[in-house]
Design goal:
alpha+beta; 4 helices; three-stranded antiparallel sheet; 6 strands; 34% strand; single chain
């Protein structure tokens, strides 16, 4: 049933106490959750039965490299990521990402770019459908 989820309140407290916190004008979070509607249905309009679970895994080394890379982007001073593993039920979290950056446009772009890289290159999601 996956790993225990982190506390976003704790994450934000840690981020605001980090050595570069005084450079951050914004922190943004992303929480990816298992939904009952299949990815192919949402993205391509394909008819699919409802999702009951997702078997979720990821490339841990690739994730560490992606985090290190994100910290080199202009204005990005804080990055923290948690990914679940194993069989996750509808409503359960798959991912948390926290980005701290100097200004809003850089923070939004960094969050979108990092989540996109993780989703497109580093995770494997196998949806399990209602019979």
């Amino acid at each position: 049933m996956g790993k225990p989820e982190p506390s976003m309140d704790q994450w934000l407290a840690e981020a605001k106490a980090s050595e570069n916190a005084d450079k951050c004008g914004m922190f943004l979070t992303h929480n990816g959750v298992v939904r009952a509607t299949a990815k192919a249905q949402v993205r391509q309009g394909e008819e699919k039965p409802p999702v009951t679970q997702v078997d979720f895994s990821y490339d841990a080394e690739g994730l560490e490299a992606a985090i290190a890379d994100a910290l080199t982007w202009d204005g990005v001073y804080y990055v923290k990521v948690w990914l679940n593993e194993g069989v996750c039920e509808v409503g359960q979290s798959l991912m948390y990402v926290l980005i701290g950056a100097d200004i809003r446009p850089r923070c939004i772009d960094a969050l979108q770019n990092l989540v996109g890289k993780i989703k497109n290159e580093l995770v494997v999601e196998k949806e399990v459908y209602v019979d």
